[in-house]
Amino acid sequence: MSKTEETSDARRIYETGKTVRDFDYAQGLADLAALGDAEYVFRAGRLWPDFDFKNGLAALARLNSGKFIYHAGLEWKQFDYEAGQRVLLATGDPKYIFYAGAYWKQFDFHRGVECLLKTGDCEYLFRAGAMWKAFDYPAAWKVLESEVKEGEHWRGRAFENEKWRTALAEIWKQGRIKDDAG
Question: For an engineered disulfide with 14, which of 40, 57, 104, 108 has Cβ 3.0 to 4.6 Å away?
Fold first, then answer.
């Protein structure tokens, strides 16, 4: 079956779930997950009149879709933020980890920062420091410094951002960034 046919099947299942009264929602969700279409699993969670949110999140986790796990946290009527963050962090997707920290109702910033640090993604480390309520600036700055080429742009942006400038001044005032060698 081609990707186009799979998407067409997923759309058909999704549309049927929106309109048919005696639709088997559990089977519909299982079928969407089996087709591997995270977008329609997410959409079903938004608009189906009957949806198993726990199994929907599990399906998105199996499909490894950071994008739609993030969007489910924003738009589903029910969402387990602890489980959602666990599966989102497991994707290792820095873009949607950043977005979740910025926009979800609940987010464990400590775990989020740890995961972002592991990705080493300078852009989203900078963005998280600029927007998150809690952040580990010394650890993130070390990553920005160690990534000489990629980090250059984001170090410059840090000096232009008020939250980062304030944090950097405090770091340097306290001498919290130390050379690993000594």
Answer: 40
| Contact indicator for 126, 157 with CB cutoff of 8 Å | yes
Same domain for 102 and 122? no
User: Of the ranges 18-22, 25-29, 40-44, which one carries the lowest mean pLDDT score?
Assistant: 18-22
Would you say residue 3 has pLDDT above 80? no
82 and 146 co-located in one domain: no
> Cβ neighbours of residue 144 under 8 Å, at least 6 residues apart?
122, 125, 126, 151, 154, 155, 158
Largest CA distance in the chain: 69
Helix, strand, coil abundance in the chain, percent, nearest 5 = 75, 0, 25
Higher pLDDT, 54 or 21: 54
pTM of the model: 0.89
Strand, coil or helix: what is 51?
Answer: coil
Q: Is residue 34 situated within a structural domain? A: yes
| Residue in 68, 56, 57, 115 with CA at minimum distance from that of residue 90 | 115
- Residue 147 belongs to what domain range? 117-182
Q: Total domain count for the chain?
A: 2
142 and 169 in a common domain: yes
Reported as a single tens digit per residue, the pLDDT across 136-157 is 999 999 999 999 899 999 999 9
